[in-house]
Amino acid sequence: MLRDDRAVDVTPKLLDLLFHLLDHAGDLVTKEALLDALWPGANVTENALAQAVSELRQALGDDAAAPRFIKTVARRGYRFIAPVEQLESGRAAAQGAAEPGRRGGRHREDSEGDRAIAVMDFANVSGDADAAWLSAGIAETVTSDLRALGHFRVVDRWRVVEVARRTDGSLEQVAADLHARLAVVGSFQRTRDRIRITARVVDALSGEALADAKVDGPMDGIFALQDQVVAQFASELGLGRLPQERSVGRDTASLEAYRAFSEGWLRLESLDIREMPGAIADFERAVAADSRYALALTGLASAEFAHYETTRAENAPAQDLLDRAIRHGRRAVELDDSLAEAHATLALLLVSAWRTTEATEAARRAVALEPSNWRHLFRLGHATWGDERLRAAANTSSLYPDFAFAHFQMAMVHVARRDLAQAETVLRQGAAVQDRQIGRGGRYPALGLHWLLGLVRLAQGDVDEALGELDREHRLAEPHRLYGREYAMHAMHGRGAALLRAERTSEAIASFERALELYPDHAPTHLGLAIARGASDFAPVERALTTLTRTKPIESAIVQAQLLTAKGDPEAAATTLSGALATAPAGFAGWTIPVEPFLNQLATSQSFTPVLRLLADRAA
Question: How do beta strands 194-203 and 182-191 pair?
Fold first, then answer.
């Protein structure tokens, strides 16, 4: 989408809306048709559509009162009213872009899509299970080398693997889904101590091979052989040579370290909590083999952090795991300050330690080094708050439309601002993405969107829909997935609160008890259970607070406020929250306060108004 030859930055969802209107230019497109086209199979309200149309108008510089592009047809839908000129398909032009590079031909400036290239896993022709790790390992190295050439827009490998998985590896479909014109396909064959690698750069539209590479040599020379693959590509495409100065920190001369790192990364990116101890062990082997291997230290920090995250909902999380992860993340940055992944990983770790100012600096450094990497933008959003988080999350979605957790990030800000209508719109969009991801076995499906949507609807007084969303969250939260047990518990706790609101007391008690089966010391659930039973004994809550005050001061303040509210002292509850927010580190502290079920009674208290104002000001 261009204005005066300059790109207009809009989200993929807005582009989908624009394309659909253009496909039916001049015709009335009903609201129902647009909802079906943009959110197929999702329970999305017309508010989401109206918001999307408003944002698209803003991007186009259009005015609903005097439209030049999109006209509202009252109570029916929308019509694209500007003249539309359809140009010749870009296929012929794109084909011309590929041909000049053929066999050393002269290169010309291509469009972003023409220069986008995706590296597929290399096929293990020999079927040697002991060499299976090379399928991803060679692809990672080729990806890194292509990026070093500085000519291509190289698609993130994580996205390539995910799309290849859901499309059964169809090259044309993978390239189309990734908006990449070019792809690298290859294979390897290991025989005893030797390996042969063959690869091609392929035009995914025409199937034509634009460059070939074939290398053969000893297994202990695998690093030089992999570099030769891209060197041969560069020679045939007339793109010059690979940079001679390669980063010491992100590369290693140790085959043992390289193998251990590759195997650890495959475990880590599964996000299966059962794989995390093995991933940690793999990365530790890599670091033991090469202590200056910054990328391996980054992987080790990430695996330790993922293992820590399985304990984060406990009253006393595994702080030693987080501390170790931060040490390893810092060491990786020391070894290679130009390694964006190290800075981005460190940012993620520091947020969990509430060192949000330092985390923001690390995330900004990562984005400055690799501005088009969606993972770094996601971590920038995680580290920041308010408008900066909203921008980072929107940019994450534009680069990776199927990453649902970016919607969760944005919804958190809207909840803190007490803009629950906007939070609901964003959550419905994200939940549709999440469900689609889970349904097709996507690699990074988020959790929590249905839970948060349920709390938002409960705060708006819709108990039935809240229960539906919370039940759906519980069904999706598989225990072996990262955050699965945590959100299963949150779903049961939220369900208990909603049932309590509906005066379905016995069902509420059952839900609270199920939540406590997952986390026996969860203080808010013990509070809900006491309220449901009509008890005045809050001893389990007070025991949990003894630990929370030491380990999680923000969460402790919220639980204390809930307890004071239950005891009929809203003034003290509001004072507790105000004090906690006033001294909390920069960031998202207390963001759930507007939708906490057991703070609902404070909504009519004048003493609660300053709390909400302070929370919203922090989220500005």
Answer: antiparallel
